[in-house]
Amino acid sequence: MPAYGDITQDKVTLVEEENAVVRIIAGNYKGSKGVFEGKYVKVKYLDVDLAADSSWSYSETPND
Question: What is the pTM of this model?
Answer without folding.
Answer: 0.80
